[in-house]
Write a structure and sequence with these properties.
about 80 residues; mainly alpha; 3 helices; about 50% helix; about 0% strand
Length: about 80
């Protein structure tokens, strides 16, 4: 995240850092469930969804830092038949 700080909004980075810190404090952090990118395109999201769906305990929710990313995630999940 430190590397990305130069390219993204500091608020987004701070929120992600606090989230990871909280998850680690509560022994809930799983790095395979956290994805970070400065730009999410449809192919990247599809690849990430495929990875998550192969996990023994796939995620049941996705939190996005921006509504544009959320729209892309909605489109990618709908294309895979996920809700």
């Amino acid at each position: 995240l430190q590397e990305a700080r130069l390219r993204v909004n500091d608020t987004t980075v701070r929120r992600m850092e606090r989230f990871i810190h909280w998850m680690k404090e509560h022994d809930r952090f799983d790095p395979s469930l956290v994805a970070f990118s400065t730009s999410w395109n449809h192919l990247q999201i599809q690849t990430l969804l495929e990875h998550w769906m192969r996990l023994s305990s796939p995620p049941t929710a996705i939190f996005c830092s921006h509504e544009g990313i959320a729209q892309n995630v909605f489109a990618a999940t709908a294309a895979k038949g996920l809700r």
